[in-house]
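Tokens for Rab-GAP TBC domain-containing protein. Go.
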Amino acid sequence: MKEHPHTEETQADAEPRVSASELERARILDACERKDIDKLKDIAIAPGGFLSDHLRSRSWPILLGFDAGVVSDISKDVSNSWTHLPRHRDEEQVKLDVDRSFVYYPNDNSQAQLEGKKAELSDLITQVLRQQPYLCYFQGYHDICQVLLLVLPASLRTLAVSRLSVLRIRDFMLPTLAPAIVQLRLIPDLLHAVDPGLCAHLSRNEPYFALSDTLTMFAHNVQRYSDIARLFDALIAREQVFSIYVFTQIVLRRRDELLEHEEPDMLHFALSKLPPDLDLDAVIAEAARLFDKHPPESLRSWRRISSASVLKTTRDVKALGRQSLQDGHDFFDRQVRELRWAERRQKIARVAWANRTLLFTLLVGVSAIYLRKTPAWAGLLAWTARLVSRS
């Protein structure tokens, strides 16, 4: 009987092959099924992230610390009771910002469809703020919420935005942006560790140029929906501080361009705009390597970050799943107390400096009495008082 040497190969070829994308999809679904945070973190850094909005709807809730299935069932029985809650103090600003939303995407919707999405966005933000009335709205918050609205089904949006707001971007929703400014100090520290020359060149500008991107999770400046959804995969899967590493890595990739700018104003303008042709997969992978090589604890400004800051309370992504909205509220209250105490210290210091001559005169008098008018000490204090009065 004549053999057919290619029979086995022909049979193998006849079997359906599983594509790489199908294997990756199965890998994501398996990680979601097992709620494997570590695996989801790895996938979020890999090229393509979670690949599709359907898979993001499965992954993001797990990373934000809630069970999508339970929330979906509950939401069917929940009425619009939030509409009867007291108005939030920032609702007028919310309306102004929502009117300016959906500028870049989606770009295949009719005007009527866009108006419908704006109404949904307004309700989403208003509901979250009324249910967490202590939070302070900031301009650009609507950009973040817009992404979650487009990615997630309606039943998951409110809890996703609430947990993101209270547990991930809480520092930006305090009564002042001072904690957000403190976070920006980590950027020069990172740049100095990697590229001291570029750091020195940029040091003529305060790192305020990074505020818009870090504040809005890059949603304000990234113009393609596929790009911002993919970037959110990494930002939601990783520690909150990871956005600092992403911004720093973008700066490092633009080294030659930035060194060409000598004027501080032009440099600030260039840094505050993202280049349109960013290779986000490469940026994210490089930022992850930068994070591993220079963890936040190695940066000088890390010690200035409050222990109640989201940068430290989400340092372990798994901890997020164990934190409740009440935990976030408690952290918020701690940060507010710290801010008020810092403001009081600054006020006392300003008053003391403004009245330094009077205070020093009193010090001289008290010291003279205490030292029993010792001529040498009295003379020294009098000379110091005259010196202070001239300053």
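Residues 205 and 265 are 8 Å apart (CA to CA).
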